[in-house]
Write a structure and sequence with these properties.
Layout (H helix, E strand, L loop, with lengths): L54 H6 L10 H6 L25 H19 L10 H17 L13 H19 L3 H9 L14 H4 L4 H13 L3 H4 L5 H13 L8 H17 L2 H7 L7 H22 L4 H17 L2 H17 L14 H25 L41 H20 L7 H16 L16 H22 L16 H32 L8 H20 L6 H18 L4 H20 L38 H12 L5 H10 L11 H4 L5 H6 L4 H5 L4
Helix pairs in contact: 3-5, 4-6, 8-11, 11-13, 11-14, 14-15, 14-16, 15-16, 16-17, 17-18, 17-19, 18-19, 19-20, 19-21, 20-21, 20-22, 20-24, 21-22, 21-23, 22-23
Length: 743
Amino acid sequence: MASSEPASVPHQLAPATSPPFSMSANPDSADATPSGISPPPKKKLKRNRITLSCTECHRRKQQCDRGNPCSRCVKRGMADQCYMESPPVPSRKASVIDTSESEHLTQRIEQLEALVRASYGHAGDPAAMSVADMAALLSNTPQAQAQAPVTPSNSQEQVPPERAVQDAATALGQLSQANGENPLAVLLSQLGSTKPSVDDLNPADPVASFPASPHVTGQLARYFFEASSIHWYCVAVHKPVFYDAYLEFFSGRHQNAPDLDFCVLLAAMCALTLQFCGDADAQAILVEGAMDKDNLRRKMFDFARTMLAHSERIQGPTLERITAMILIAIYLENEGVVNEYYGTIGSAIRTAQSMGMHRDGEGKWHMNPVEAEQRRRLWWILYTHDRLQNFVLCRPYVIHDQHCDCRLPLNADQAELIEERELTSHSLNQPTEHTFQILQISWSQVLGQISDHCFNILTPSYRTVLHMEHQIRLFELGLPAGFKHGTTEGSVRPYITFQSQLLVLQIHHAKVLLLRPFIYKRDVPPYDEEHRTLQEAFDQYACDVCIQVCKRLLAFQQIMHSQIPRHQLRWFLCITSIFDAALTLASVLILQPHHALADDIDYWVRAGQNLLRSMASFHHVASESVKALHAVRNRALAARGLPTVEGDGHSPLPVSVNVPTQHYNHSQAHNLFDPLLSAELDRAHRTLGQSQTLVADSLGPTEMSNTIWDSIPVAMFETGVLPSSVEMLSGDFDAEELFERFL
């Protein structure tokens, strides 16, 4: 990972050249020297600072991010001329006190003592006070000074406060250089010896300000890579480089200024890990200080955001900052803070573009292959998130394909990215740690096409909907064997099972959102007589396929809940896909209360409620989903002439199959559908075992070739597109009021 230049480098200060305390800064005043000539300035000592910039940035006196090449040289088109000079090894010399300054130093000491006596004379002789007494005096003095009256004094004897502070600071600095540790230095160190809280951060020393000890932080980082599903879903953190930077961050704090961007990355990793960490695992990790998981999670996240803002002010962008912003965005998304998630991803994309990451690092900037590959991986993760939020939030994406020539990342494990050997990419049928990310890129491009052609400012035609359905099908058929549902590849690489399940959810969810407008056709104007029969048949086929996909999605989630630990189900996709599927089915019952499959549809609505209720205790968005779905289902029951259910939806529903009650436990850790309750899972497996049907299959080849579908617009895409469920569930809303125009 690239590192940015530290904010400051320790060096030897030259002696201060400020005029004596009694001399006025104004040469026209009465205190000026008799001759009117100022004394010659003292010779400045050369500061042998280590050069931490490339030669070109050092020559131009510009800040350098120390990349290879750095971003500034890349922008200048001088990437091939960017190199770092090897810093000379400084020789250690004993401190030498300039005896010629002793008289001047004595005068400074007297000035400082006079200032202390004038400020704290009411407390007695400062020389007789202990360090602890002076610390207590300093902590209580501001209030006393605020209440004390100001006594007038001779204008010639009164010292301006700004000048007094400057003189005191100068004297104190020379004292610390000349005599080492002194009582006042000890006093100031004791005043700042307590560890700062998150509310009082010290950006100059992020290691001391970090909310957790290195031991706890190391355990959280290990959990992030080895036990959580975060690294399975988003391989943004390059593990080998991360651990090198981690050791330098904590062990090298006295030799080098800590990298603020890595500090942000580490805090974001810890916050995200605690977000997905199970209670038992968190208790084992945090046993050292008996810390509360949620409290530490919030502290870590606040720390990451604060340090990110400070880093953006004082140094240029780095790959660590891009990585940290990706993790912060994922955290915000899973907390349901949609607007901040949207803004963070947009900011990360703009930052990456400012670093030239939309252009290929190896082909355009002539970088070494490993660094160029790391940049590619981060860039395409940003691209994926940009397209996903575009489809789910119905907001425009930021990255346009015509502006980018960054090549696709290699299908290779992180351990294979070694500079000493040639980088090779494996076939997608040979899964690696990064195969899922490559598939996500292809999937996000499909979603971008759907958004461009169906959910933009133009109304799509029926042919466009058929084409987009076909694109989803092609992607599904083109998945590698290891990522197809029911394969055994997961036994070799366990994370592939989880990744393939997420892909299935994404595909089903996209189908639901694509076909759902055909259900909300209440406000559609009457069709023309010429094509009415064909259009109504198409609409009914699309509605039937949408219902089938909703049931398949909920059945698949039932099986996931019986196989995956509870804390891995916290992904926002799991919640929003359940809510959208159950909401769509409940809407069918409201708009078509006499539907032939009404009882079966209501069963799956209740299944969705149960799934959301099982996650409501650890995800507030799931809790909001339960309440919203409860209101909509009551509306459906009323439309069918059935009694409604009281409460807010959080009370468990009765079991719908005939099994002994002792086999069903609603307080199950993560599996609402108990494995002993085989009837529930059997029904889910039967639903998934049915063949998938497309709208094109229902039409048949003859109707598919009819040219009328090319020109007839789908009016439901103007009137029947629900607001984004992500935004609905992220804020306070009234379900009845929100769905009134659709239901």
